## 1
Amino acid sequence: MTTTASVTGASTDLSAVIGGSNASEAGSADRFLKLLVTQLQNQDPLNPMDNAELTSQMAQINTVTGIENLNNSVQAMHASFLQMQALQGASLVGRDVTVDGNQLTLVDGQLEGGFTLAGPADAVQVDILNPAGQVVDTLQLGAQDSGRHGFAWDASKLADAGGHTFRVSARLGAAEVASLPLMLDRVVSVGLDGSSGLVLTLERSGDKPYGEVHALN
């Protein structure tokens, strides 16, 4: 009598054989196949295992192997992406970028800053503060749309324009509109961080993830 070898009597649990969440280990597929061959060799000819389960478990081991290969490919792509980011980031050294902050920057005799509005406002006011925190002037910018805006203040009469800051207040009728102050800063160097990716070292703000840069200037 000829017996067709199939697989189910000994009921192999693939997830137990290949170690569940540790299935990415290199020897997991070999262990599974060796156990499967042993079961086939020792099965009861009168009660053969089911072909459907053999097919199902072979599909599982192929899926596990495919996932492991995919993970390796993703890790290699991530490493290449970080290297590419570092090369691109090197071109930013010496350039100005826009980041969160309320420090004013002297440009051609004017102190410049910026802000973003969470919504439209019918009255926007910017107070210019000296290094002691005292208001030295106020700019009335009127109505502004939501989004990013810039402003400039004449600093030509100041003996020393360093250390000046600003604050923004915006309203729509009686309601306050949320605002975020923005400032210019210069990139001194770039580096890579395992969790944040490309990190810029800025002249005044220190280290900033590239994702926190609002604009390149």
Note: The chain has three helices and twelve strands.
## 2
Amino acid sequence: MTKINVHELGYVRLVNVMGSDLTIVNAARVSYEKESFNLNENDISLLKFLAREGHTSPFRHALAQFEIYAPLMVARQWWKYIVGSAHMEATGDSMDAWNESSRRYVTEEPTFYIPKNNEWRSKPLNSKQGSGDYLGIEIGDKYSKELEKLIELGVSAYEAALADGVCAEQARLFLPSYGMYIRWYWTASLQSISHFIVQRSKKDAQKEIRDYATAIIELIKPHFPASLEELIK
């Protein structure tokens, strides 16, 4: 499996993988000029030790590349992990990579995330962020329709501006942004991926990004079953 659909329009696609559990084991064992050729119980014990004691550098020798299609509100939460979990070199370059489609150049028909009438959530009782229980169908139906009308208005103005010769990088100002789907490539080490999974699988994480974290787990776990299990415990 290399692709998982998320919501109705979004998806996560596993593009490429470099390494395996054995890659991580051998990155650690090189300190003693040793190498394993088949993963065994001693290697599993080593992976447990590395994860438990926070010896993270061996996990950065394994990489995965994903293509992701998600609403902008999800992408901007996700982007914080490129900044926050970056292991900065002396040059200031991050070991993770992110390349995103841009409506400065792309004028394909925009698509938007619109919650269904049973997906609107209340504000939480004891927090300034996050969400509470699901609201009723009646109020959900109201705001699904309101959002649809807002999107239609914005897209109409966007298309009119393009037709009048306005450049794409300015015409995009008319598009409602937070629910608009964008596409990007994310390449990250297994350590960064596991950190994202741990943080965005929690119950207090926004549901929409939790759904994407679940897809990441399902795609990456077959390639690093032992390592990932220890990292996300």
Note: The first helix runs from residue 21 to 29.
